[in-house]
Amino acid sequence: MAIKILNAVIAILGGIGGAIIIFWILNKLAESLKGRWEDRVKPWMFAGPAILAIAVYLIYPAIVTIQYSFANEDSTAYVGFKNYVDVLTDKTFLQVLFNNVLWIVIVPALTVVLGLGVAVLADRLRPRGEKTAKTFIFLPMAISMVGAATIWRTIYDYQPQGTPQTGVLNAFLGLFNKDPVYWYGTDTLHLNSLLLMIILIWTQVGYSMVLLSAAIKGVPEDTVEAGRIDGAGERRIFFSIIIPQIWPTVITVFITVLIGVMKVFDVVYVTTNGAYNTDVIARRFYDELYTQGNNGYAAAIVVILLIAVIPILIYQVRHFRAEEAAR
Amino acid sequence: MTTTIQPGTGTPAEEPQILKQSKMGTGAGSATWPVRVGLLVLCVAWMIPALGMLVNSFRPRDEQFASGWWTAFFNPFGSSWTISNYTTVLTSDSAGIPMSQAFINSLIVALPATVIPILIAAFAAYSFTFMQWKGRDVVFVIIVGLLVVPNQVAFVPLVKLYSGLGLNGTFIAVWLAHIGFGMPLAVYILRSYMSGLPTAVIESAKIDGASHFTTFWRLIMPMSTPALASFAIFQFLWVWNDLLVALIFLGRGDNTVATVALQGLQGQTGAGRELIPAAGYITIIVPIIVFLALQRYFIRGMTSGAVKG
């Protein structure tokens, strides 16, 4: 244990010290060059290590993953499109895909609506009350999905019939003499998936609330005032004046949550491990890579995920360019 | 500057917000009773699950399974309380390894993985903001695009690469992975902050003959403290709360982190089940403290419009 801590301290000091020394050396190297070359090389010396980290840990592996998706289980021979055919004709995978679509359709929209609701209501409290209310809603954001799933056992827990129920939902059913329900195992109308989504929403509403609240406070008062003078009611003002002005933030929140949901893993892995028809793409990927040891199939799943992300990626880049142009 | 979100890392010199006047029932302090009650109910509902786990973490095993946590909550003097769940899970191997060890492992993983990328990203952000070079904008746009790419794209080759190097299960493997995965966000946050800094200061430093290296250390780093803090909190919470990267590159064993240990404990059906709430609190206490203490910086980072894939 002491050795481990020592290692970590060395890693921190060595990492920082090493980085400083490397940048110092790179800087000296650049300065030793003459005239124009110094100006040409120095920016690369400064940005180089970061670019290298990104290249080694994201760009290069992404390319290799695409390559692996056309290869066999242990990536030793090419198999053409076999993995993709396998993935897309696998009935269980199509179900997984459908579950992910459910998450994508429900979670981001609900997170935005709930966050907007809290933001609007809390905005009417006095600053102190607003801050307190927001802290409560926001707090779950700091909690890991593993932690959140553990916390929600107090709500969803199931004990066999005839024994005392320890989860709030089943205790509630017991008040009406109804049999306890094993919630995670109930996939009627995807109830169990919905219950898992609530855990994720619980952690995300705070994020949505904070961003939307900042946006609402940024709406110029005179636009709202103008609406009032023209005789618009509160509802009309909200939907026709405030919403259009905070729309860019709504989109930002929606997209951020959407990205998180597309690769949702933790909450499903911890609660049902994909059983009872709750499986999602990222958990299936982990399963194929780790439990099944099928690199090709796993890589093909990731490539499908990557393709699904491309529209968001294009949006993100465009959005960034527009912001830069507005600078 | 960003038109979407006002108080972001991109706007260091934030103009004071004009306070809304409370007219016609929408301004601050205008809440009606239904609004107040509604919010109160919502806040209580939001805290109930965490409260339930807190109550259960201090209840002995037989009571935890003989009645719901609310029984003890509403009748605190008629119930027995104990800290043995905490002491047991901290010292015994119920979760694979003692939670105390897993807790320290989490710190060992999270601290270097938070601190090391900051400097690397700050240099890069400086280069992207204050230096002119060919390809700069193209490279940055690629980084912006990578913000939304799921980390999963990297796993298959990295696992293979690491096993070739014998790195699987070592702290170095996770540190490096988190440095790489966190880098796009770090560069993005720091650059968007730096580009909001007053250019006149940098220009005058240049005229005074200061090199880029000096300008970086003496001017830009001190001026960027708020953005550095936001990213540090982000990255720390992200790494501490991460399950997937830790599962894949560190796995279970002596180096197991708290989230993985807690996950392992979930499968318990017999002995050890009563330890789950205590283990849960041991896992989430650090992020909660960090978050409550540094909320301001955390929110600032979020409102910079950054997303992480």
Radius of gyration of chain A: 26 Å
**CATH homologous superfamily assignment of the largest domain in chain A:** MetI-like
SSE string of chain A: HHHHHHHHHHHHHH
Number of E-type strands of chain B = 0
Count up the domains of chain A: 2
| Percent range for β-strand residues of chain A | under 5%
Second rung of CATH, namely the architecture of the largest domain in chain A: Orthogonal Bundle
The total count of strands of chain A amounts to 0
The N- to C-terminal Cα distance of chain A equals: 51 Å
Mean pLDDT of chain B: 85
Give descriptors for this structure:
heterodimer; A: 327 residues; 14 helices; 76% helix; B: 309 residues; mainly alpha; MetI-like fold; 2 domains; disordered N terminus
Folded structure, characterized:
The complex is a heterodimer of chains A (327) and B (309). Helices cover 76% and strands 0% of the residues of chain A. Chain A contains 14 helices and no strands. The radius of gyration of chain A is 26 Å and the shape is globular. The model of chain B is unreliable at 1-16 and 18-24 (pLDDT under 50). In chain B, helix 1 packs across helix 14 (276-302) and helix 5 packs parallel to helix 8 (171-194). Chain B is globular and about 75 Å long. At the A-B interface, helix 1, helix 2, helix 4, helix 5 and helix 6 of A face helix 1, helix 2, helix 5, helix 6 and helix 7 of B. Chain B: It is a multi-pass membrane protein. Chain B: Pfam families: BPD_transp_1. Chain B: Belongs to the binding-protein-dependent transport system permease family. Chain B: Its main location: membrane.
